[in-house]
Fold this sequence. Notes:
Layout (H helix, E strand, L loop, with lengths): L8 H28 L2 H27 L16 H19 L2 H8 L6 H30 L1 H21 L9 H12 L1
Amino acid sequence: MLHAAGFSSANSITLNVVTGIASCIGSAVGFLLVGKLMRRHVGIYQETGVTLSLFALALVFGLGIAPHMAADGTIGAGVPAVLPWVVVALVSVFVFIKQSGTVNWILVSEIFPARIRGVAQGLAVGALWIMNAVVTFAFPVMIANLGAAWTYAVFGAINVVALVFYITVVPETKTSSLEEIEEQLQARFS
């Protein structure tokens, strides 16, 4: 991604340290947010931030970088020098926000009924890792076929759906016991 934004391969690898630091700080902030705020609100914050970051990346690539790309994918002259750094900043914000939304792991442990909790958690975590693999394999194919702007726009749209899901379906679990959560979800979906 950083290479596509105009950085050399060596600089792209070096700048990954910046996103790694953002990830570590985001995780620490996530632990604090989950302990202090309502879990549902943290999830909504995460999905909103990720969605906005993805759409911002789509705009930067679509309006600022893509017009200066050659057919072979190299960046030609004319790209404002600040745009690759804007990409670094947006990626860092994206990673920070994604990591600070550690609430997903807590919700997975709380929302399933006691009688199937272990199996359901295993299936949910397995599904998360399968989707991580799908994104990992689909991303380069999408970049090659759709371009960076449309790829980020597609992932942004997917996160809009996730945000709507959080707002409309995901319950607040911080203030209830596991038994109360089970009762509330049974009443809601029965």
